[in-house]
From TrEMBL, chains C, D:
Residues 128-223 form the Acyl-CoA oxidase/dehydrogenase middle domain. It comes from the Bacteria. InterPro entries: Acyl-CoA_DH_CS (IPR006089), Acyl-CoA_Oxase/DH_mid-dom (IPR006091), Acyl-CoA_Oxase/DH_mid-dom_sf (IPR046373), AcylCoA_DH/ox_N (IPR013786), AcylCoA_DH/ox_N_sf (IPR037069), AcylCoA_DH/oxidase_NM_dom_sf (IPR009100), Mycobact_Acyl-CoA_DH (IPR052161). Keywords: Oxidoreductase. Residues 12-124 form the Acyl-CoA dehydrogenase/oxidase N-terminal domain. This is Acyl-CoA dehydrogenase.
Amino acid sequence: MREIIFDAMEQLLGDCCSPNHVRRIERGEGGPKERAVLWRALQESGFTDALVAEARGGSGLSLSDAYPIAFVAGRHALPLPLMQTILVRGIMSETNAELPEGSITIAGDVSVTPDGTVVSNYVPFGEVADWVLVDFGDRAQLLPATGAQRHIAGGYGSVNARMRWTNPSISGNELPGSHWRAYGACLISAMLAGAMERTLNMTLGYANDRVQFGRPIAKLQIIQQQVSVMAEQVFAARMAAQVGFSTAGTRPKLMAAAVAKQRTSEAVGTVSSIAHSVHGAMGFTEEYDLQLFTRRMHEWRLAYGTEVYWSKIIGRELLAAGESRTLDFVRQSLAG
Amino acid sequence: MREIIFDAMEQLLGDCCSPNHVRRIERGEGGPKERAVLWRALQESGFTDALVAEARGGSGLSLSDAYPIAFVAGRHALPLPLMQTILVRGIMSETNAELPEGSITIAGDVSVTPDGTVVSNYVPFGEVADWVLVDFGDRAQLLPATGAQRHIAGGYGSVNARMRWTNPSISGNELPGSHWRAYGACLISAMLAGAMERTLNMTLGYANDRVQFGRPIAKLQIIQQQVSVMAEQVFAARMAAQVGFSTAGTRPKLMAAAVAKQRTSEAVGTVSSIAHSVHGAMGFTEEYDLQLFTRRMHEWRLAYGTEVYWSKIIGRELLAAGESRTLDFVRQSLAG
Amino acid sequence: MIESLELTSIPAEDEALRASVRAFLDEALDGVPADVRARSWMGYDADFSRRLAAKGWLGLTLPKEYGGGGRSSFARFVVVEELLSAGAPVTAHWIADRQSGPLIHKYGSEVQKKFYLPRICRGEAFFCIGMSEPNSGSDLASVTTRAVRTDSGWKLNGRKIWTTNAYRSHYMIALVRTSGEPADRYKGLSQMIVDLSFQGVTVRPIHDITGDAHFCEVFFDDVMLGDDALIGAEGSGWEQVTAELAFERSGPERIYSTLVLLDEWLVFLGRDMPVDDGRVALLGRMASQLCVLRAMAISVTEKLARGESPVVEAALVKDLGTEFEQQMPLLIADSLGDDPDRPAPSVLLKTLAYVTQISPSFSLRGGTREILRGMIARGLGLR
Amino acid sequence: MIESLELTSIPAEDEALRASVRAFLDEALDGVPADVRARSWMGYDADFSRRLAAKGWLGLTLPKEYGGGGRSSFARFVVVEELLSAGAPVTAHWIADRQSGPLIHKYGSEVQKKFYLPRICRGEAFFCIGMSEPNSGSDLASVTTRAVRTDSGWKLNGRKIWTTNAYRSHYMIALVRTSGEPADRYKGLSQMIVDLSFQGVTVRPIHDITGDAHFCEVFFDDVMLGDDALIGAEGSGWEQVTAELAFERSGPERIYSTLVLLDEWLVFLGRDMPVDDGRVALLGRMASQLCVLRAMAISVTEKLARGESPVVEAALVKDLGTEFEQQMPLLIADSLGDDPDRPAPSVLLKTLAYVTQISPSFSLRGGTREILRGMIARGLGLR
């Protein structure tokens, strides 16, 4: 199943989400229309209903089955919240809720002012999404992105936004709250792993092709050692993301999501640094594609809590469990 | 001045503190007599009164002048608390206190039970010292080591002790309290820097001598890169220790001591790891001298607070200062 | 080439072994302090090894006809995971169980299999590995120990070093030159099983940085071996050693050898220390890393169970695991010194000191990190 | 060989410069947001550079007869430390002040010195460096851009890349081949001052990962240079470039280019965040590292002030400083994401994003980390 989905996603994004598509959407070139074309392609592929039950017209996949969708989205730096949309639609479809049109992202935080204004300081994909799922703790709610003031919350090329809804219309579209940060973290960990794998592939290719002092730099012992360390981190990140997705249901488990986001985020520094170090000046240019992935990796690391945030959550849980063996905690709280 | 002291200490310890002396004292071979012989040599050199005012028969050096004494002690893994003795005698000589016979160390912590028993869980050099300076906060006191129960507080070859005095005789030998952990940290940072420099020298020698795959391993790019990283850490540690000692008086300044211990401790992991990695199996044997220094480095890192302890102290002080420029804090609170 | 590692889980029939192993260890290790248990796969207890054998937990993956368990590599994973994480003293049988047994099973004659394998499974034959020599270092192809044909077998002369447990093992499987010169490198090397009780064998234990003696120097002075000492084909020593190192590297040792320290620290934090964000984050980070490393080790085990030879994947997991194990004592030390007014208990300090001192050896055994990374680079297609 | 670095302090007369520089910057940078200041030595403001020149702070170490300040390297250290740590936009004059001026002073003819140095000190001549070429990478000796003798000077053809600020500089000092072939390597290379307004020069800015354009590709197509374009001796280009790189590496840029981020985070912690042991420890650690790096940079400056050429020591400090600067955005990001319910203000996030994106360039300029470490290894006597 996973291989079929992987190949189908690769083919789809290879066609409709080239590096230049990504650049255009990042820069806002072509406006909402550019995004709409890409979204339509994703929607027509049927992937957006991957987790929706077959009875409601979806594919009825488990989250575990859907892992390659998020991973391949990361491999192509897909600038739209496909996997977030898939999860929200999947969970909504378990109720009688009507499934909305368009892309859905998950807000990283929320605060509500006394006059009812809703603010989220960090909404990954907030600049390009149609809907934002905001977790109020006691419940979660879909808010329309068009009703919000948006400001880019990041550096060059970011599609993350600070968003602010004045008196949002809260009608329907309500879901259980409180776990959405972990869900967001889990989904983005697979995208992180995909982006890291792409940078590894680019780095391997560059090292074999680039000739310096008369031979490919891949022959240099120091390059070989660095790239091996990079590969170790990418392999670990990929496994961590799979741990996060390892459920036969639709919802990530809290500790598995925590491990997924902790470990993938921790890998970002090493993977990005080595990729840039091997690529030299070329990797530092806008026109070369590496930056699409390394920029995204740093942003996704920040989204939904960095490694230290999730480390603290895991550490507190481990202490609270009163276990005297870390291995038992790992076996019992987590997949494997 | 410093060069003269450096050379004199090198000559002295080269004569009386060979690696085999260190081993014998670590193992307790020869008993207290073995230590007494070494201590007598140190005492006769006059170094023990380096900080004592000339009017009281000492050399009247500043702490800054005395830096090479601690550094060279570290370079030879001197298993007696020479520098601690020097500082305590120097500070005591500023009062009318009588200066005691024998070596003095500084306890890392203290607790007092309701019945008056004094316990220190971590006394560096506690197993081999004659006196222990214990800091009770409101005052500090010299306690005789012979009056204490001692247990080794460390692994193979450690001379650190857990010490316990039942109803210690508190008579005289009182000094102002509250800063002795920082003083101990400062002194040991220079010993750490010395031990690290020694491991660097050993590693350079080994890499140039050791032939593998037909040539010295020093020719391998990966070895060159590793040893360069090691050297960077050793240079930084040496500079940090000098920052700690940079006073024309006898007492280290708190923030300078904090930086000295933080930065030297932080270097230990990298320096020790690379030294062992380059030396391979040989560096892992008891009979080769490297272990004398790497074991000590790990112990000294633990003594008087590790890098995270001192980092927290520096961080709190920086926040409390209300500065908006880290550079100004660094310039104003610290030497340089 | 390297293959991706996919998440997999331990089959229920193998997981079912865990309860009995755990119960056995709870009793066998009761009261053994952490600084002793921290030795684990450096801890020697021949009696303990024989008790494990009596339970059927040695030679688990060898066929039943030779006294083995006839089980999959998952079964061995579960047993080994329990042994190492609890800090059981397993070094006596470790090499026989992990690599000498599988090596003999793969390359040995029927006679050799019938002789050695049941003894290994009963905990009666302990093995050591004769690879390194004083001037070889990582360059194994430069070995000079030589076996010369005699009428009745082989005459062995030379010297091995860094041989773990030689002074308390029964046999060594030695890489020796049977033809050619050192300049011929890989060609002309063979493996010999040497009975260490034979005349002409001298063993000198070497004390290490922790004060223990594991490493040995072994001298061969006209040691007369029978024809049956040769294991596998003459001249195939290099290929066999490579396979043997693959057995060595694919075990889960490389993620569990410092768990006793981690758990001792965990208990100290939970019992004696106030919650501090720095400590809690460090604890959680290690649990997270352990979780991912374990999932990777299980994935390698699954490839073994399918009969593949995941050499590069195992090297990758070993190198990551070594990083985890070598960083752990450094990180825990930093945390233990984060509040000198709350000093750590003595047993925790001793455990820390032992693990700190032993940790450089984690990257000596089974190939230095540089060698492993070179293998990974080749597996990645760097050329 | 490398020498040890001894703690030293900035002489009082040089330290005295600080107050006036600080007062000037407080006014000049008032209200400039941190994410703009974070550009610092990548920030271009020709007017600002000329205001600094008017204060006498460009060409501080050049002799007064050429319009310089006639001051020691300590004086330059103080001014540069203030400029960079405040995040002043200095890139316009940076290369002229740091290396082109000293290079012309050391190797130029009297005519060249009289022409260029006063202009540099007045902020009227901005320079860029033509070293790299599309196929050279770190291998500078392989350059193929060539200057051929003509009746009246030289004819230049070829291409340079990764030339910072070429599109907004007046001159380039280019490393070119004046005799021999690329196979001759170091031999036959010379340095030329190229007026970038000349016919035949084409400059293409290259956008970088932050969206800014600093790097350029520069094409020379039959550019006719006068006799006076050659700087130093013909064929001495390699030696001169090595000296120039030493000027580049011994400045304090390599410890201050991320301080704007550190300070913005410091203010956020002090104002908006509760005390958390993890955050406080990270903050303290960075202050401690900064303290030690600064002491090392001052020690290198003292060697410069004594007329020494501390090439290896400077490489060591630069590599350590680069580690500090490249780690900083990674560490601060981790901390900023340690409590998503207390999100960082927008300007801090933008500052972080900029510094994160620009940070790979810290190890591109002035030699990769591998090259610096190779220099250190040689300085340590590894052979």
